[in-house]
Amino acid sequence: MPLRNQNKPPVNSPPSPSNRKENLDEIPVDKRRKIGISKMVGPANNVRTRQAFSVVNSGPDLGGGRDPTANATSECGSGGSVEFTREDVESLLNEKMKGKNKFDHKGKCEQMTEYIKKLRVCIKWFQEQEESFKIEREKLQNTLKSAEIRESEIVAQMKNKEEELNDVIMDLRRNCASLHDRCSKEEAGKLAAIDSQRQEKDTRIAAERSLASLNEELNKAHEELSSSKQKITSLDDINKRLQEYNTSLQQYNSKLQMDGTSAAETISRLQKEKTAMMETLSNLRGHNALLQEQLASSRASQQEAAKQKELLTNEVGCLRGELQQVRDDRDLRHAQVHTLKADLDRYTECTGKSSAELEKLTIRTNFLEETCSCQKEQISLLQHQLSVANDKLQLADLSVMDKWTECEEQKKFLQDLHNRLAEADIQIIEGEKLRKKLHNTILELKGNIRVFCRVRPILPDDDCGGAEMAVVSYPTTTELLGRGIDLVQSGQKYPFTFDKVFSHEASQDDVFVEISQLVQSALDGYKVCIFAYGQTGSGKTYTMMGKPEAREQKGLIPRSLEQIFQTSQLLSSQGWRYKMQASMLEIYNETIRDLLSTSRSSGPDLSLGKQYTIKHDANGNTHVSDLTVVDVCSIKEVSSLLHQAAQSRSVGKTQMNEQSSRSHFVFTLRISGVNEGTEQQVQSVLNLIDLAGSERLSKSGSTGDRLKETQAINKSLSSLSDVIFAIAKKDDHVPYRNSKLTYLLQPCLGGDSKTLMFVNVSPEPSSVGESLCSLRFAARVNSCEIGIPRRHTNVRPSDSRLSYG
After folding, report:
1. Which pLDDT does position 118 carry in this prediction?
2. Residue 799: HSE in the Cβ half-sphere, 13 Å Cα cutoff
3. Which run of H or E residues covers position 72?
4. Domains delineated in the chain
5. C-alpha closest to that of 560 among 432, 685, 691, 453
6. CA 82, CA 75: separation in Å to the nearest integer?
7. What pLDDT score was predicted for residue 29?
8. Tell me: the pLDDT tens digits for 677-706?
9. Is 554 helix (H, G, I), strand (E, B) or coil?
10. Spatial contact of 690 and 609, defined as CB atoms under 8 Å apart
11. What is the pLDDT of residue 352?
12. pLDDT of residue 17
C-alpha cells in the first residue's frame, strides 16, 4: 500500500483530509525518506520508547531535554524538524500554566495558547506516526498475501502432480494384478497339460502291455497252428485279424507319441510365456519403484517450496534492511561531501597545497557527487512511484465513495418504493372496501328482488311471419327506454315496466353485463340467487346455459363462473384466498335428483333412488342431505361438471318444444374466502336456477308420463306464485312447504339474499296468452319487498380454518 500524508508540517489546527495530499507534495524528499526510516526501524525492533520524525534541515535539534515545541509556530511556517520522545510527551502533558500572579490572566492566556499549539503539534505527530505504521502493516500484509498465494499455487501443483502419479501407480497395480491372474491361469493350464500327458503315458503303457499279451497269444496261436493243421483256414483268418489289430495298435502308439511331443512343445511354450511375464512383472515393479521415487522427489520439492517461502520472507526482511542501508549510505555520502568540501576549503586557505592534489580532491569530489546524484535519481524514482501509488489510492477512495453514495441513493430509492407500495396497498384495500359498499348500496337501492325481461328472437321454425311487431313492442320514451315492454292481445295493449328489458336483438354478452355486478356480490359475502321463469320454448335454458362450446353464445351460468374465478385470482394480490364447492340437482315430479351422483337412479322410475331432505339452519343456509358436493378450483372443472349435469337432466318432447326441460335445474356454488392480511372471512352462496317451462295442458298435448310431468311443473310454479303473492301482501304465513322448489328457494325469496328473476317471453302470436301470464307474474314479483341483504363476514381467529356447513 502507498504511503499517505506521512510528514506534513504541523499547523495550528488539524488539517482536513482534502489538504493532506497538497501538503504531501510540499514536503522535501529527504524529509519523507527520514519518515520512512523511522517508521521501518520502529516496528522492526519493537521499540516504542523513542519514536521520532527526523527532517534534514538547517533548523536546530530539539533533543537533549529541551522543549520540542518551543519554536512550533516558526517551524510550522518554515518546515523545521520536530522530534518527540516519551519524556518530551510526558513533560508536555505535565506542564502547568504559571503566571506572574494569580491575576495575570493575560500571561496565562498566552501560555495556554502556546500550550495548545504544542499539543496540536504533538497530536499531529502521533496521527502521522500511527498512519505510517498502518501503511507499513498494509505493505507487510500484501507481501505476505503474495507469498501465501505463491505457496498455494505450488502446493496445488504438487497436489496435481501427486494425483497424476497416484493414477499411474493405480494403473500399474491393475496391470500387475492382471498379469498375476494371467500367470496363475497359465500355471493352471500347464498343470492340466502335464496331467493329460501323464494320463496319455499311462494309456500308452497299458496299450504296450496289451500288445505284449497279444504277442504271447500270437505265439501260442503259432504253436497251435503247427500242432493243428486242420484248423489252418480258421487260424489264417485269426492271424490276419491279429495283424490288422497290431497295425492299429502301432498307429495308436504313433499317435500317442505325436500327442506327447505336442504336449511337450506346449509346456515349453508356456514356460517361455511365463518367463516373459515374469520379466514384464519385474519391469513393472521397477517402474513402480521409479514412480515412488518421483513421488518422494515431488514431496521433497514441496518441502523445498515451503523452505523457499521462508527464504522469500527472509529476503523481504533483507531487502528492507538493504533499503535502510542504502539510505544510511546516502546520508553518509552527503556527510562525506560536506566534509570534503570543508577540508578542501581549509586546505586551500591554510596550506595552499599543489594543484595536483587539488585536482585529485576535485576528481574525488566529482565521483562522490556522481554517486550522490545516482542516489538522488533512485530516490526521485522511488518518490515518483510513491506519488503514482498515492494517485491510484486517491482514485480508489473516490471510486469507493461514489459507489457508497450510489448504494445509499439506491437504498433510499428502494425504501421510497417500498413505502409507496405499502401506501398503494392501503389505498387499494380502502378503495375495494368503498367499491363494495357503494356497489351493494346501489343494488339495495335497485331493490332486493329485481326482475329482468328478455324477449327471444324469431326462430326459423316459428310460423309467425312478421307478426312479432304486432305482438311485442318497446316504448321509446326517456323514462321507459330499456325498461318498458308492451304486449298486444286481441287489439288491446298491456304495458309492463321492469328493472331491465332486453329486446330480441340483445346478445348474451349484453345480458351478462347487467348482472355482472350482482355476481360480484357473491365474492363480497352476499347470498345471490338468479333464476329464469317463463313458458316452454321462451329461451330460459338458452339464457342460463346457452351453448358453452361457442364463446359468443355462452349463458349466464358459465359466464358467471368465469367472472368468479377471474376475480378471485385478481383479489389474491390483496391477500384473499377463496375455496369453492359446487353442487347440482334437479326437482323432477317433486323429487330431488342429484345430477353429480355416480350411482343415482336413471329414468323416471325413482323408487329405488335416495330420498333427499332439505334443511335450513339458523343462519339461513340451505343444506340437502346426501347431496354430492365437489371442490372446484378452475372453470374447466366446473365446465366438466355442467356437461355431466346436462347429460343427466330430464328432458322430453312436447308439442311446444322439441327438447323441453321437464325439471327445475339448480346450480349452487358455495364460496368461502379469507383475507390473510386483515384476517377477515366471508361466506356466500351463488344459486343459478333454470326453472321448467310453464305450459297449458291443452296446448302441450301431454299424455301419460308427460302429463304427470306437466302437472308437477305447473303445481310447483303455482306454489311459487302463491309464495310471491303472500310475500307481496306481507301475510303472516308464507306457504314455502307446498312445493320442494319453494322450500328450496325460501332463503332467496324471504331471507337476506339478493335475488334476480329473468322472465322470458316468446314473440309468437300463438303464445301471447302464456306471455301475458308470465309478465303479470313477473310484475307481481317486482313489487315484492324482502329482508335487507346481509353480508356474511367475520374476523378470523388466529387458528381458524375454512369450513362449510
Report:
1. 83
2. 0
3. helix 72-78
4. 1-352 (no CATH), 447-600+610-795 (3.40.850.10)
5. 685
6. 8
7. 40
8. 888 888 889 999 999 887 665 555 555 566
9. strand
10. no
11. 59
12. 42
Q: How many CB atoms lie within 10 A of CB 211?
A: 16
Place of cell 307474474: 777
For residue 353, the one-letter residue type is: K
Q: Determine the residue type at 138.
A: E
- The one-letter amino acid code at 57 reads N
Distance CA 457, CA 774 (A): 17
Please identify which residue in the block is written with the cell numbers 421510497: 416
Grid cell locating 792: 356474511
Whether the CB-CB separation of 268 and 223 falls below 8 Å is answered with no
* Residue 581 contacts residue 537 (beta carbons within 8 Å): no
What DSSP line would sit under 659-712, residue for residue? Answer: TEE-SEEEEEEEEEEEETTTTEEEEEEEEEEEPPPB--HHHHT--THHHHHHHH
Question: From the centroid of its chain, how far is CA 226?
Answer: 117
Q: How far is C-alpha 609 from the geometric centre of its chain's CA atoms?
A: 53
Cα→Cα distances 711→69, 607, 718, Å: 124, 19, 10
Nearest Cα residue to 450 out of 160, 753, 180:
753
- Computed over its alpha carbons, how large is the radius of gyration of the chain? 60
Inter-axis angle of helices 105-227 and 86-94, nearest 10: 140
SS3 of residue 652 by DSSP: strand
Query: At which residue does the C-alpha cell 310453464 appear?
Result: 694
CB burial string 111-128: b at 16+ within 10 A, e below = beebbebbebbbebbeeb
CA distance 15 to 13: 6
The string over 580-617, giving b where at least 16 C-beta atoms fall within 10 Å of a residue's C-beta and e elsewhere, is: bebbbbbbbbebbbbbbbeeeeeeeebeebbebebeee
| DSSP string of 358-383, one letter each residue | HHHHHHHHHHHHHHHHHHHHHHHHHH
Residue with cell 502308439: 253
Q: Would you put residue 258 in left (φ > 0), alpha (ψ -120 to 50) or beta?
A: alpha
Exposure class string for 20-40: b at 16+ Cβ within 10 A, else e:
bbeebeebeebbbbbbbbbbb
Residue located via cell numbers 514441496: 302
Dist CA 74 CA 647 (whole Å)? 111
C-alpha cell at 789: 341483504
Dihedral, CA of residue 650, residue 652, residue 656 and residue 657, to nearest 10? 80
> Among 563, 554, 555, 558, which Cα is nearest to 522's?
563
Give, in order, the Cα–Cα distances in Å from 513 to each of 425, 506, 517, 639.
Answer: 28, 11, 8, 21
Q: What is the rounded distance in angstroms from the CA atom of residue 753 to the CA atom of residue 529?
A: 7
Strand pairing of 528-534 and 754-761? parallel
Q: In the chain, which residues have pLDDT < 70?
A: 1-83, 97-100, 102, 221-222, 224-236, 238-239, 347-348, 350-355, 432-448, 462-470, 599-609, 650-661, 695-706, 751-752, 786-805
Nearest residue to 793 via CA among 518, 522, 582: 522
Tell me the CA end-to-end span of the chain in Å, nearest whole number. Answer: 77
pLDDT in the model for residue 511: 93
pLDDT value at residue 651: 61
C-alpha cell at 166: 497416484
Residue entry with cell 497359465: 186
List the one residue out of 329, 434, 430 whose CA is nearest residue 372.
329
Pairwise CA distance, residues 634 & 288, whole Å = 72
Collapsing DSSP to helix, strand or coil, 586 comes out as strand
The rounded distance, in Å, linking the Cα atoms of 641 and 662 is: 20
Pairwise CA distance, residues 483 & 499, whole Å:
6
Q: Cell 516496528 appears where?
A: 43
